Amino acid sequence: MRVIPHAVMLAVACWLYWLATRIDAETGGRISPAVWPKAIIVFMGLLCAYEIVKRLLVKSEFVAKGLVTSMESGEDKPGERFGMLFAGIGLIAAFIFTVPWIGFFLATAIFLAVFPWAGGLRKPVVCVAVSLVGTVVLAVVFLKVAYISLPLGEGPFRALSLGLLRVLGVT
After folding, report:
1. CB neighbours of residue 24 within 10 Å
2. Partners of 76 in the β-ladder
3. Would you say 38 and 24 are in contact if contact means Cβ atoms under 8 Å apart?
4. Which of 25, 42, 80, 112 has the fewest CB atoms within 10 Å, i.e. is most exposed?
5. Pairwise CA distance, residues 54 & 48, whole Å
6. What is the per-residue pLDDT across 76-134, written as a single tens digit (0 to 9) for each?
7. Radius of gyration for the alpha carbons in the chain, expressed in angstroms and rounded
8. Bridge partners, 24 (sequence order)
9. Are 83 and 119 in contact (CB under 8 A)?
């Protein structure tokens, strides 16, 4: 009974991988678009297999309580942290809607600074560091590894994005 959710997800991962094998695109010598979904699906399948083995061999009785348990006391306090949940959902929605206008770089930097703050991290230096390093790492991975074009934004935001692309050495 403890492995059923993971077994279902493992079956879904196998089905999704089969679907990903049907992705056919001319790459011109670059990494195929099928590589990224396949990689994510393989990781999903491996995590499910790990959980199945762990639950069968170790017989862990871990129960996730998430939002209903207070981090400090470990007591059930339903609703205490729903503000963080809704703030996170709102920030994700704001990111999705603003990225076309202000561009990937600025939208990601703002999101990565504000999201941990909304989650309760009250260390501004850490939030800003995560924001700047995370934005650069994501941009390099998307632009130089995965060859994904990113939204540049409109007006002055576009000029900012183009300047940052020059700094990163992306043409």
Report:
1. 8
2. 69
3. no
4. 25
5. 10
6. 555 667 888 899 999 999 999 999 999 999 999 999 999 999 988 999 999 999 999 99
7. 20
8. none
9. no
